[in-house]
Amino acid sequence: QVQLVESGGGLVQPGGSLRLSCAASGSRFSINAMAWYRQAPGKQRELVAAISSGGITNYADSVKGRFAISRDNAKNTVYLQMNSLNVEDTAVYYCNSDITRLGIRRNVWGQGTQVTVSS
Asked: What integer is the mean pLDDT of 93-112?
């Protein structure tokens, strides 16, 4: 069993910054790509940022230049640094990892963490 444990969500003012973390825990697993998604009320879940095992990154157009995804492979952790936040960034943010364990490959989702941008 592998679980993704998220932290770092909360309330922040427009223009502020927030850093999300997501650590994978368990045994006998390996991680390929990792990603962050978000879902606002009444909207579909969307990809925010992704990072490959080699460090190649991709971002949604709406967050380019403001958000940065990174990973620490030794800690099995992915981060999302969010700068210049605006109210449109308000959503539940979910981390996702492509994980292989016991020969089985699957995507694993975190529980989600609320990010609220408000004055």
From this structure: 96
